[in-house]
From TrEMBL:
Organism: Pedobacter yonginense
Keyword set, alphabetical order: Coiled coil, Kinase, Membrane, Phosphoprotein, Transferase, Two-component regulatory system
Cross-referenced InterPro entries: HATPase_C_sf, HATPase_dom, His_kinase_dom, HisK_dim/P_dom, HisK_dim/P_sf, PAC, PAS, PAS-assoc_C
Coiled-coil annotated spans: 142-201, 435-462
Protein name, UniProt field: histidine kinase
MF term (GO), any: phosphorelay sensor kinase activity
Length: 824
């Protein structure tokens, strides 16, 4: 069954209409011309689809002389509803006219003007029910006959006593009494014969029906079970009479039904109940029971006659319908209905949750729309009314949080199956917020890159052109990375799993083919490790052990050599341990992907970035030298305008130098060529140098160095200096001129903790968690130009010193960046 409900087409609706179990037909006109009839109605009539378009008398000639055609005429002319129960109708089935019994309804369907447009004809064949009820009534009649017989016997006994007491009178009237006695004997014989015949008829009917019929005495003990009971339970009459049916009741129903039965027995009243009973096929059947009390003529209680019908199919249908409703209610899609004015008639729980509503009563579709988008939404709604369907991306909102969310609004008509008139508007829409945010992020990145281009263009045309080319290549490489990621996600992957107890490996054909293991050969741990490049076996073994012992997710990239071809490939394996309810491991499984192309692209990209950045340094150094010479000349010539312009050019050259150095460091870092050259130095001296360098280029802030940084550390002085300079420079960029920047230190557990605190714009939690990722940039009104590599490089340098780096911040309250490195 689909997890996304959709509106059926007219052909599908007619097909569903034809398959509905309730016999249904649609008629028009006084002669009840048949407009449509489903399969159930055609089966009742004993006809096929050729009757469509004919009047009722023409289609069913045997109805002539019966009241039904006249009923249709009244319903059409007077707009009535005529119904009946247990109504007899003579129908010709297979060439033979037979009498059937129906519960039926003829209902006039009217338009808005009150005119009858068609007659909805529904019918249920209750012949079997009617005959069963007739059998039950005959059984009750038999019981009454038995009661009358007992009363007659009592009357005879009293008469005999009177005869003995008046023996003399009887002798005198012996002849008359003889005649009377003969008549009485004839009457008794006739009555007994009638009772025997009645009992025989009852048994014949009870044995011929598929209704479960049983008779019990006044003590609740069974006296009779028909063959339907014995066939269902596979138990004999004797077993059932000895209460041998109670243990077959479902444990959840047994005590409740027995209590109903015993309570009715005590009160001598009619009872009904539903229960499940175990059949001979091993399945439970649902039965609906009804028990009627029996009484003698003098009112004495004789017990019960009970009848049960099998309602298993009905119960299963109810369960399927409940499951379907649950599926619709559980859908994550935004599903709703409204009238043609936009008044909401239904919203599923997912829609209610997204909107933050407690009820949709007295709500309109415009209430769902984010206030800023309602003018657009009104135009869309008019288009929907005009065309019958629309599809637009628009913002709805949560009234509780006042946060908007994007949906792909798909609206369409729902039409009446008979008149084809539009009766409602429906929407089945998906939440596309994440996709829209991703698009906005891409747009912001493009805007940032454009801003960077403008800043760099102030240097010179050659440098600007080179910068533009570099950005273009970076964008192409990023796009290549994204396409490669999508290709990996959609192909070149397989699955694997490991039994945590036996360490038995199950691998898909793709995994085996990549490793060089035959498809029909088991993928043992020894085989897998044999295919892994020796440099990565220790890392992979440690990762697998950690995952199996600590149940932590794993993600590893490593080299393998195909055991058959010897071909070298890069692969990526991700996995996690799945636990049962008690927390015990069930399976360690995940994905296995061939990332050789991506790895090669990354290496080529890093080589390219390194090459381009290195080539840019030579002309940039020359430009810097020319600018410095021109600055000195401007000062000697006391040319304030030229000096100011050259200062700006020098500032742009410094920015470009920083950016190129960053790209070079990223390239070296990812190529494994960046070296950590450690030496012993005083941290406070390095901090002072970094602060002084900042004052040379930016003297707009008050930078305060605490006196607790007098400590010697063993680290790479230049690279730690780059980290400090980057953090202080960021504090300048993202805080107001004249604000304070505090630099402090602390020593704890053999590590020195450096903190750089500003009074700037702050960072939200989501951005703080991603701040040290490569090329990540915070989006907002205060975004400063850059490429998002400074903090990434800083973090990698700290990690290579076995240290940590993090940030603590609140929006509009400033930020504090921390890093730690071991003292020794």
């Amino acid at each position: 069954m689909s997890k996304s409900p959709h509106l059926l087409s007219n052909e599908q609706l007619i097909e569903v209409f034809n398959l509905t179990p309730t016999a249904t037909a649609i008629h028009v006109g006084e002669t009840a011309v048949i407009q449509n009839a489903n399969n159930a109605m055609l089966e009742i009539w004993g006809k096929d689809k050729s009757v469509i378009g004919k009047s009722l008398e023409e289609a069913l000639p045997e109805l002539k002389g019966q009241p039904f055609v006249e009923m249709f005429r009244r319903v059409w002319n007077e707009g009535l509803i005529i119904s009946g129960k247990d109504t007899a109708a003579d129908l010709e089935i297979a060439g033979k006219v037979q009498t059937f019994y129906f519960d039926f309804e003829y209902r006039a369907i009217k338009n808005d003007a009150g005119e009858t447009i068609c007659i909805l004809h529904t019918a249920v064949d209750v012949t079997e029910r009617f005959l069963k009820q007739e059998a039950i009534e005959m059984a009750q009649e038999k019981a009454l006959a038995l009661q009358r017989e007992q009363a007659l016997n009592e009357e005879l006994a009293a008469t005999n006593e009177e005869l003995v007491a008046t023996n003399e009178e009887l002798q005198e009237t012996q002849e008359a009494l003889s005649v009377l006695n003969s008549e009485l004997e004839d009457r008794v014989e006739t009555r007994v014969k009638e009772l025997m015949e009645s009992e025989e008829r009852f048994k014949n009917m009870a044995e011929a029906t598929d209704i479960f019929i049983a008779v019990g005495d006044e003590q609740g003990n069974g006296t009779y079970f028909n063959s339907t009971w014995t066939e269902l339970t596979a138990r004999s009459m004797q077993d059932l009479l000895a209460f041998g049916w109670a243990d077959l009741l479902h444990p959840d129903d047994r005590q409740n039904y027995i209590n109903i039965y015993l309570s009715a027995l005590e009160s001598q009243k009619e009872f009904t109940g539903e229960f499940r009973i175990l059949a001979k096929d091993g399945n439970y059947h649902w039965l609906l029971a009804k028990g009627s009390p029996r009484f003698r003529a003098d009112g004495a209680f004789l017990g019960y006659i009970s009848s049960c019908i099998d309602i298993t199919d009905r119960k299963l249908y109810e369960l399927e319908r409940q499951n379907l409703n649950s599926l619709i209610e559980a859908s994550a899609e935004f599903i709703g209905l409204s009238d043609l004015k936009g008044n909401i008639e239904y919203l599923n729980p997912s829609a209610m949750s997204k909107l933050g509503w407690a009820t949709y009563n007295n709500r309109t579709m415009m209430d769902c729309v984010y206030p800023e988008d309602r003018t657009q939404a009104e135009n869309i709604f008019e288009e929907l009314i005009s065309k019958g369907n629309v599809s637009y991306e628009i913002r709805f909102w949560n009234e509780q949080t006042e946060i908007p969310f994007w949906i792909d609004w798909n609206g369409f008509f729902i039409k009446d199956a008979l008149s084809n008139e539009v009766i409602a508007l429906a929407t089945v829409s998906s939440d596309i917020t994440e996709r829209k945010l991703y698009q906005e992020e891409l747009q912001a990145i493009n805007e940032d890159l454009a801003l960077s281009n403008e800043e760099l263009a102030t240097t010179n045309e050659e440098l600007a052109q080179t910068h533009d080319d570099l950005i273009q290549y970076i964008n192409k490489l990023s796009e290549s990375d994204e396409k490669l990621r999508q290709a990996i996600d959609t192909g070149k992957m397989g699955t694997w799993s490991i039994n945590p107890v036996t360490i038995e490996i199950t691998a898909s054909p793709f995994v085996k083919e990549t490793l060089g293991i035959a498809i029909d050969e088991p993928a043992t741990m020894e085989k897998v490790m044999e295919a892994v490049n020796p440099k990565y076996r220790g890392m992979l073994t440690e990762a697998l052990t950690n995952a199996l012992e600590n149940y932590t997710p794993s993600e590893n990239e490593y080299l393998i050599n195909n055991l058959i071809t010897g071909e070298e490939k890069w692969v990526r394996a991700t996995g996690r341990v799945f636990l049962d309810k008690e927390g015990n491991p069930l399976e360690y499984s995940g994905l296995f992907m061939d990332i050789t192309e991506r790895k090669l692209d990354e290496l080529r990209k890093n080589d390219f970035i390194g090459m381009v950045s290195h080539e840019l340094k030579t002309p940039l150094t020359a430009i810097n030298g020319f600018v410095q010479v021109l600055q000195r000349k401007a000062k000697l010539a006391d040319d304030a305008y030229a000096a100011n312009a050259l200062d700006k050019a020098a500032n742009q050259v410094r920015k470009m130098t920083t950016m190129i150095n960053g790209f070079l460091n990223v390239s070296r870092l990812e190529s494994g060529k960046i070296l950590i050259e450690k030496s012993t130095f005083k941290l406070d001296e390095l901090l002072k140098e970094a602060i002084d360098e900042t004052y040379i280029s930016q003297s707009t802030h008050l930078v305060n160095l605490a006196n607790n940084c007098d400590v010697e550390v063993f680290a790479d002085r230049d690279k730690i200096g780059n980290v400090i300079s980057n953090l202080i420079s960021n504090a300048h960029k993202y805080s107001a001129n004249g604000s304070r920047i505090d630099v402090s230190c602390a020593i704890k557990n053999g590590e020195v903790i450096v903190a750089i605190k500003d009074e700037g714009i702050g960072i939200n939690t989501d951005d703080a968690n991603k701040l040290f990722e490569r090329y990540y940039r915070v989006k907002g009104n205060h975004t400063i130009s850059g490429f998002g590599i400074g903090l990434y490089l800083s973090a990698e340098i700290i990690y290579r010193h076995n240290g940590k780096i993090w940030v603590e911040s609140e929006l509009d309250k400033g930020s504090t960046f921390y890093f730690t490195i071991p003292i020794n």
